[in-house]
Amino acid sequence: MITRYQQILCVISLTLMMGCDDKPAMLEDDATASGDTSEGDKPSTEVPNPTIVTDDTSTVTDDISTGVEDPTKIVEPGITTVEPDCSGFSLGQNVWEGDVIGIPDLIRASSGSYTAIRGSLIISERDEALTSIDLPQMQAICGGVKIIGNTSLARIDLSQLQAVRGTVTIVGHSDTNSLAIIDFPELHTVGDRVEINGNTNLMSINLPRLQTANETSGIVVWINGNKFLESIAMPQLETSRSVSIARNASLTSITMPKLHTIDGRFEISESYSLTNIDLPQLHTVDGDFEISESYSLTSIDLPQLQTV
Questions:
Q1: What is residue 22's three-state secondary structure?
Q2: In sequence order, which residues have a C-beta less than 8 Å from that of residue 142 and are 6 or more positions away?
C-alpha cells in the first residue's frame, strides 16, 4: 500500500522519467533529467532537479509571480487598498493621524515617539541620505507598510511593531551596502501579504511571532529575487493563502515548523543552495504544488501531507 507521502515522492520520480513501485524511487545523478541546464544559465551540480506538479487545475485566487530578475526594473506592487482600520489593535498613547509619507514625515514620527499610525507607512524616496527607519516604539499600523527602493537603507527598526492591517512590502533595495536583515520580533498579525522582493544584500528574514492575517484567512508570503538571502524564519506561521519562495540563489534554510494549511499555491523554485525542505506539519495545499530548479536538494520531508 503506497502512502500519500510515497505518492508525492513518486510524482518527483515520474517527473524525472523514472519508475515508481511500492517504494519511492531513488533520484538518479542525472541533472539533465529536469531539462536543459546549459553552462552559464544555472549552477552545475550532480543532484537533479526535483519537481512536484499536481493535476490540480483549479483557479488560484492569489496569483504569485515567480520573482524579480532585475531589482532595478521592479514594478512597484503598492499597498493593497485598505481603509485604515485600528479595531482590535493596541495603539498606545501617541497616535499619528493619517499616512506617514516620505522622509519629512518619517523624521517627525520618529522624534515624536509615536506608538501607532492611523494610516500607512510609505517610504519610497530613493534618497541616498536615508540610511535607517527608526520607529522603535511603533506598535500598530492601521494601513500598510511600503518600503521601496531606498538605495542606502541599511536598517529598519520596528522592534515593537505587533500588527499591520494591510500589506507589508519591502522591495528593491539593490545597493551592495543596503538592507541586510529584516527582523520584526513582535509582529504577529498582517492583514494581507508579506512581500519581500529584490533586496540584493538581504541575508536573513526573521518573523518569529507572525501567525495570522485575520480571523478568516491566511497571509500571502511572497519572498522572491533576494540574491544573498540565506535564511527565512517564520516559526509560528500556521496558515497561508499562498507561499512563493523563488529566485533566492543563496537560500539554505526555511523554518516553518507549524505551517499546516496553504489555501492556494505553494512554490519553492530557483533556490540553488537549498539542500533540505522540512515542513513537518504541512497537511493541506489547496492549489498548485511546485518544487523546482533547486539543484542542491537532497531531501524533501513532508510527513503529514495528505491533500494536494
A1: coil
A2: 84, 85, 86, 89, 116, 117, 118, 119, 165
d(CA 194, CA 172): 14
- The answer to whether 33 touches 14, Cβ cutoff 8 Å, is no
Q: Note whether 209 and 238 are within 8 A (CB).
A: no
The closest alpha carbon to 155, from 172, 176, 125, 179, belongs to 179
Q: Which three cell numbers stand for residue 242?
A: 499562498
Q: Which three cell numbers stand for residue 204?
A: 536573513
List beta partners, residue 205: 182, 232
What single-letter amino acid sits at 17?
M
- Residue 110 in 3-state DSSP? helix
CA distance 179 to 206: 13
Q: What is the DSSP string of 215-235?
A: SS--EEEEEE--TT--EEE-T
Q: Where are the alpha helices (DSSP H) in the chain?
A: 4-15, 102-111
Per-residue pLDDT tens over the stretch 218-244: 789 999 999 999 999 999 999 999 999
pLDDT tens string 178-199: 899 999 999 999 988 999 999 9
Residue 143 Cα to chain centre, angstroms: 20
Distance, CA of 95 to CA of 32 (rounded, Å): 58
Instruction: With a cut of 70, say whether residue 32 has pLDDT above it.
Output: no
Distance CA 156, CA 48 (A): 39
In terms of Cα–Cα distance, which of 195, 234, 189 is closest to 216? 189
Largest Cα span, the chain? 66
